[in-house]
Amino acid sequence: MKHIILSLLLLNVLALTSCSVLVKKNPSKLSKLSSNQQIAINQLGYLNKSEKIAAIPNVTASQFDVINAKTNKVVYTAQLSAAKIWTLSGNDGHKLADFSEVVTSGHYFLRVKGVADSSLFRISDDVYDSLSKAALRYYYLNRSSTPIEEKFAGIYARPMGHKDDIIGYHPSAEPRYKGKRIDSQKGWYDAGDYGKYVVNSGISTYTLLAAFEHYPDVYKKQTLNIPESEDNVPDIINEALWNLEWLITMQSDDGGVYHKLTTREWPGNEMPHEDQRLRLIIGKSTAASLNFAATLSMASRVIEPYYPNKSKQYSNAAIKAWRWALLNQTQYYEQPSDIKSGEYGDHYLKDEFAWAAAELFITTKNKNFYTIYKEINIDYVAPAWRNVSYLSLSSLLFKAKDLLSKQEYEALKIKQNDLADIYLNQHKSSPYNVAMQKSDFVWGSNSAALNKAMVLLQAAKINKNNDHKNAAHGLVDYVLGRNPTGYSFVTGFGTKTPLYPHHRISHSDNVVAPVPGMLVGGPHSGQQDNCNYLFNEPAKSYVDDWCSFSTNEVAINWNAPLVYVLGALSD
Ligand code: 9MR
Q: Which residues are catalytic (predicted)?
């Protein structure tokens, strides 16, 4: 019952009606997941022409029906697959139902003898539209240094948190600035905490801007109802700019870039405006400088038509950061003993050097950067905050065709296709039809899924290969409900969604429903928190509880591939 009420509330929330609100959240009550007895579908629905798969509990029945919910008539009947076991989710087994042949828009459900009907789902080419907006609006709702206004945020309005105009320097950042203060406003909160971290901000901002750079028509049409929506700049760029304007403040006058801006300890479980602890600029690192160089360089070319002066400022700043990194190649971030906030430490920076070199090459057109890039000679895997090698490949394929010889360009294309093929093979050989391997069930596994989907969709676009698109769909289905937990992992989107994410704002805002459009980290076999997990299998090691920062937190670098993938699918 509570679930139905919450779903209705969420509908209101999404429509931004200001219904009077509500009661303080109760602490989470764990309930044994019963997904093994339920049909698992993509709870948002399926695009008209996409592959359509559902996972059925291991019943004896051998066929399934697709039923039109309006007419109650069976529109499609087919054989279930043989029983399969995905060991990453246990040994109960399941069967797959493939109803890709149903392409007519409408509301449907699945019926299989021996198990409850599936929940309703839609087939339509707009099934992802509202999520695509909400996933981007998450960034607005998590802005620092500004009040979040009711006319844009409805029930999620809140007073300004962290003006960040008087920030101290930790000795690890700039000893010569002891006692000085810096203005470091704007930016997004990283995750469930209120820190701002350059390394993670970089990849997140890049991914949003890449969505625009690769699919401009999708985002030129999209309005998000954010304060800048009335101007003539696409909203995704305006949103990215909020963080870029913070990032630019993190550069020291010598060109190096500070690692992060946080409090010494984690903030309390309180709203942003209630967190009055002193915030500090902490560390200066090669990783942050390179990440900054890559992101600002890329941003400079994307915003150029809209903000020419800023564009110039960003590209100069990027070059300055690159030069500093060349002179300080191993200034790794080491967490000072008095600091408890997130570390984002990384001692392997070949990929960061390569990414920055590639972006500087594309933006400045100076081929020396490409020579450096080639000399670094990196391997590519789906991106993550710690491994950004693939971002260079992606940018070069989309933006450097005219700057490279045919041979050079083709060589990059093959590398990209090879990587996409690895994920395609994982998809095809997976008993669950999803390209998720044991090693993907890390902290933030849902972003591992969506970053793989991004690689696959780029391959599909570049090589016009529909198989790659299907494999990407498999991963999107997985995140939105066709998985062994039965959750759609995005707050407010699906029939069973996280209600208690590790997100301080949602935890303390007195609104029952969490901020919508946030992707939670997802199953993580490490179980690196002290929560009560009901399952140990990697694909089921998830708990919808505030305490689970290692499976139920949200983060800007996790939502970014969600934004990208949904945009790419609507292209
Ligand atoms: O996403 C990060 C993950 O890869 C690390 O394993 C984890 C532990 O160091 O930290 C994650 O990032 C967190 C960051 O340190 C602080 N803000 C919240 C981030 C998401 O949990």
A: 502, 544, 553
| CB within 8 Å of 9: residues ≥ 6 apart | 19, 22, 512, 513
Regarding the beta carbon of 489 and ligand 1, being less than 6 Å apart is answered no
Domain that holds residue 56: 45-125
Domain count, the chain: 1
- Give the residues of the chain that fall short of pLDDT 50: 1-34
pTM (two decimals): 0.94
Mean pLDDT, rounded, of the chain: 94
**408 lies in some domain:** no
Query: Which residues lie below 8 Å from residue 414, measured CB to CB, with a gap of 6+?
Result: none
Query: Cβ(553) to ligand 1 under 6 A?
Result: yes
* pLDDT for position 36: 61
Residue 116 lies in a domain: yes
Asked if the structure places residue 303 within a domain, the reply is no
Q: Using a 6 Å cutoff on CB, does residue 555 contact ligand 1?
A: yes
Report pLDDT for 571: 86
Pocket probe for ligand 1: among 203, 204, 344, 505, the residue whose CB has the most ligand atoms within 8 Å is 344
Task: Residue 102: give its domain's CATH number.
Answer: 2.60.40.10
